[in-house]
Fold this protein.
Amino acid sequence: MLVKLLVFDPQQPFNMSILSKDTIEKEIIVHLSRPSRGPRIPDEYLVGIVQLIFHRLKTGTQWRELPVRQFLPVEYCWNSVYHYFSKWSRDGSWRRLWIYQLGVKRGLLDLSSAQLDGTHTPCKRGGEASGYQRRKSAVTSNMLCISDNQGVLLAASNPEKGNHHDTFDIEGHLLELIDMLHEAGIETDGLFLNADAAFDDGRVRAICGEHGIIPNFDLNARNGSKWDRDVIFDGLLYKRRKVIEHAFAWLDAYKALLIRYETTALNWYSLNLIGFTTCFIRKAESIKKAQKKL
């Protein structure tokens, strides 16, 4: 019985990109800023740089260990790849890319309800917006996220130190989430929002009311008996909250998001937005293919 051995040739490119070159060229690089001075970088090189950033996102490899020669046809240094990633973080390119994708594809979203939850990520190198979380027995970063009814992540607040509770500075973080939705053209008026009992807070309910959001929060016993409170809780609708947990699990497939090694909060936030973007583009492609078969 003959066995064919697959031998890896380091001189030949291999496909470790999350998205195809064609998708990156059409939907990603057109939204990334370019140097205002000096020679224009060819699109082919920008595609390779984005592929390397995606490779870092997917595999969690160190920046200095990026397989540059396998994605770019010229001699290039990993420092330059990191330079572009960091530059696009600072000038807001990754955020603008995410807002654009969310806006043009919002017809694919299921906004019959939305889900709110926080996510903690261990920080192995510490850095900005990191703190010791006793429950996790580790230094972590925390972000609040909102997903639609399918588990598509829609918005994320800026990272916060993990030693803080999910409702720390809740007014500021919740407004960040709402502003991101509005930027993408997603109306919040009449939106049902599920969240666990930690968010059953007067401040949260007040902000929701100001923006037409209908809170469906699990009732917190610290606020008194449910029979004495003039609030509505739909237990059947609340079961949809699990889809945001599924979304967090999907993001864990990106090893760079499973454990945080970025020391700057902005770069860490940008990596998460890139994860949101790539997941959404791939899901949108799947939905469109399914619609064509109907």
The CA atoms of residues 8 and 14 lie 9 Å apart. DSSP finds ten helices and seven strands in the chain. The radius of gyration is 21 Å. Confidence is low (pLDDT under 50) at residues 1-16.
